[in-house]
From TrEMBL, chains A, B:
Its cofactor is FAD. GO terms for molecular function: alkylglycerone-phosphate synthase activity; FAD binding. It comes from Pseudoduganella violacea. It holds the Pfam family FAD-oxidase_C. Substrate binds at R387. Residues 84-264 form the FAD-binding PCMH-type domain. It comes from the Bacteria. This is Alkyldihydroxyacetonephosphate synthase.
Length: 536, 536
């Protein structure tokens, strides 16, 4: 059973061992464990549904609660403390485009706001009900999950847009294909969610961001059905896919999506390389990204993240031996770990890895083989469970991410980290901060920063702490020329920072597009961009 | 000096030798040479300019004529026969964003239509004045041509949007960089033109379509300046670049563009492989495109194109020897030529070529080395000059292109070719038709078909012939599920076929975007999509 107030399956626990807890205590002090509200207590918070009855709508408090929020830190605070706030008045589970159109007509008739809800894994407040006075219906898309068509020759698969990551991959694997889109939320996020939030996966270097794999689809909108045909490429005016990508439920409800799939590769491997310091590591990573080397993943941890990962890994003696060995090879304090992935035909992949490792050596990189890489692959979707474990011991974990050009990657990293480190000074709290570059491009990289800090034990205080931290790091991002999100989307948490990058003219254009498809403002109101007229 | 009524520089002549003429005569009969109108005769066609004077506007007939049309076949007919029709009332050559804003204000004040004019190489009627009753100003962007900024670390270059292909590459080469965008119009087309028509170049397999290299820019619109920031990637809502790409002058005038550039590669080579028949050639090409092999170009000619290229190549004895040799290796009538390019580090490129040639062998491909490839590279921008030569002998050459999924590539090729072959039957004229796949993707390929047919010697008859042919092939494209353009854009020639792929909802969305930026309908009116309300 999926956790209602945390990440993942209830049966899966990722413990923090004593060494890890000691590490955190040294850095930021002992945590303050908080007593969680029960599911029943949380349900009791919900007011009665105000929706006119409809055969497709479930108004039970349990269903409403499970579709009320996502996985952002403020969402967690609401769930853990049992301070739900406004929730949808009901949840519909449409099983066809026809049923979605029926729900849109219902919404128009009664002026009901519609919040499209996929896997509920948003970490940016996409799913929150912002206006408590407005009737609101969550449209859960997860029953739109069928493999509708597979064209093996053209490597195209059409799915119901609510299909979950693992179900999508399983359906494709049965035919020898895969999509290869692996965000950390993979286990619970949906294809449609990836598309409307412009998601990116861990192996995007090979398989592309969702923008590259989304080839076409069907969106039900208040202005009718928008069918986006799938072409290999086209110069025929505006690419309609791009209106759907990143639309975050403001344009319509995506019911079907066609994606470009790949043959399951013959071979896959992840290797780790340590560098003596950030400058050498970044230079190597940049050269690898700009070298078109045919790699499938590059992921570079800075020194604090490297230390943290080694500390949390357990296996104290093994890690101790590794560190001694690395130290003899020049990688001591300040060392940074680069993970390199290859996938494909065995000969091609091995050649690419050899070339990559050769380039790393020129930058004093020390190759330690596949051990850490295999471990990373094994835990690639497990690390999110650490958030549950940390919470149990009284620590909050949150992340923020951006992307910038290479010439600003290092200064961005320092700006975000130092903003975070001092953000809770007024609360006399320290923040443990570390960063990795999760997605590398020829132009630049995503800068993905994690914060660990102590819970206060009080809902209001924890919300204040989160807001202070979020504002500090988001301001650092836009002030340093980064995008407010590289892979999580905008939702409500990032919306205040969007105009800094889009400009007044860009925001107005986005509003014009959404107003065209949704003139009555029924769709996910208040998310992404403010209603017309409120920008500039 | 650039030709005013044909392609390219007046000093460059590409002759058709007797064998080539004999080949065409056998196929479609002897040509009917037409006497061209003189530049003076054509200028005399233009009515007096009706524009209120402005310091930036040149109203001389010579300048107006040189900025009146593009390179489509109907444009050629107008120029060659001296039947210009409506032309702009003046031409402005702005040198800054400020001057473009000034021109937009002028246009608003006097209700003047603005046609953005880059290199004037459109083959889809983007530049034509459609409404003779409307005051019209061509805005020639070619003085916006400076390299404004080069960030070597992030491999980003910002140019004035009117920079011509060769000037852009020369500016980058001085620093060891290149863009690598090589449409056949490269010598005269502009960066801005590539962007607003979603152009694609010959080596897009490595360097990407213009969509992949266009990172950001500045557009002057009647609603103000739209500045699109350049991020390596972003999940922050609508990608504003995508509103600019393919906007064909309907949204604003692009003044600056930032592009992702690459280091000049160490090594480059083009090899040719012949296959016994289309089926084997297509299967090999598809596997190469789906194999992520790190190639920079794939270009597959069908049997008739292969024969035509060999016939037009001259060097009769050399080609004869090659054909004998190929025949002994199983490539006789029906053989198809695949051109394979690699670029990059020498070892990496050679490994990729070896792997590609190995795969071709499995499909009975016969590798003939670099001779044909070197020849192709040498003539990559020269083949367009053949149009001038053919015209001199009384033949028209036109092309049409689309893109479809692999499962429909062969049927599309046959549909377009047979539509073309019979399109002039009512005129008792034959059409010589051949096709290549110019851009190959994992999902499918572009299908690029060339037609050669005889001129009638009469403007009206030639326009009727062209219309019959264009309608036949365009209908075949949309009826078979292709996009109306893979690389040339929509303009006015393809506009009637756009709704077949975008749907009424898609057309309405495009209209909404353009209406938002240009509520008075000043920008390139009538191109791309009909004015609001005329679609559905």
């Amino acid at each position: 059973m999926r956790r209602w107030n945390g990440w993942g399956d209830e049966a899966i626990e990722f413990a923090l061992n004593e060494d890890a807890l000691g590490f955190l205590a040294t850095r930021i002090g002992n945590g303050n464990p908080v007593a969680d509200a029960s599911f029943e207590q949380a349900c009791a918070q919900l007011g009665a549904s105000r929706l006119p009855p409809h055969r497709l709508i479930d108004t039970s408090p349990a269903t409403r609660l499970r579709n009320a929020l996502g996985q952002s830190l403020p969402d967690w605070l609401k769930l853990r403390y049992g301070r739900i706030g406004p929730a949808p008045d009901g949840v519909a589970f449409p099983e066809s485009g026809q049923e979605v159109r029926e729900l849109i007509n219902y919404a128009r008739l009664y002026g009901v706001a519609l919040i499209a809800h996929g896997g509920g894994t948003s970490v940016a407040g996409h799913l929150t009900v912002l206006d408590p006075f407005r009737l609101t219906l969550a449209v859960n898309t997860t029953r739109l999950c069928r493999l509708i068509h597979l064209d093996q020759q053209s490597q195209l698969a059409t799915f119901g847009a609510g299909v979950l990551g693992p179900d999508l991959e399983a359906a494709l694997r049965a035919h020898g294909f895969m999509l290869g889109h692996y965000p950390q939320s993979f286990e619970y996020s949906t294809l449609g969610g990836w598309i409307v939030t412009r998601s990116s996966g861990q192996q995007s270097l090979r398989y592309g961001r969702i923008e590259q794999t989304f080839a076409g689809g069907v969106v039900e909108t208040p202005q009718g059905t928008l069918e986006v045909q799938a072409f290999p490429a086209s110069a025929a005016g505006t690419d309609l896919r791009e209106l759907v990508l990143g639309s975050e439920g403001r344009l319509g409800i995506l019911t079907e999506a066609t994606v470009r799939v790949s043959k399951v590769p013959e071979y896959e491997a992840f290797h780790a390389v340590f560098f003596p310091n950030w400058q050498q590591a970044e230079a190597a990573a940049r050269e690898l990204a700009q070298g078109r080397m045919g790699l499938s993943m590059l992921r570079l941890s800075n020194a604090v993240e490297t230390v943290t990962m080694l500390a949390l890994a357990g296996h104290k003696r093994l890690i101790g031996a590794l560190e001694t060995w690395l130290s003899l090879r020049g990688c001591r304090d300040g060392k940074c770990m680069l993970m390199i992935g290859v996938s494909g035909g065995k000969a091609q992949a091995k050649t690419a890895m050899r070339a990559a490792l050769g380039l790393c050596r020129e930058h004093k990189g020390v190759h330690i083989g596949r051990m850490m890489g295999d471990k990373w692959k094994q835990n690639r979707f497990r690390n999110v469970y650490l958030r549950n474990a940390a919470w149990q011991y009284g620590y909050a974990i949150d992340t923020v991410e951006t992307a910038v050009d290479w010439s600003r990657v290092e200064s961005m990293m320092h700006a975000v980290e130092s903003a975070a480190e001092t953000a809770l000074a007024a609360h006399q709290e320290k923040v443990h901060v570390y960063t990795h570059l999760s997605h590398l491009y020829a132009q630049g990289a995503s800068v993905y920063t994690t914060f660990v800090y102590r819970l206060s034990g009080n809902y209001e205080d924890d919300l204040v702490r989160w807001k202070a931290l979020k504002h500090a790091v988001s301001s650092a991002i836009v002030d340093n020329g980064g995008t407010i999100s590289h892979q999580h989307g905008v939702g409500s948490d990032h919306a205040p920072y969007l105009e800094a990058e889009k400009g007044a003219a860009g925001i107005a254009a986005m509003q014009a597009v959404f107003r065209h498809f949704d003139p009555e403002g029924l769709l996910n109101p208040g998310k992404l961009v403010p209603p017309q007229g409120l920008a500039a």
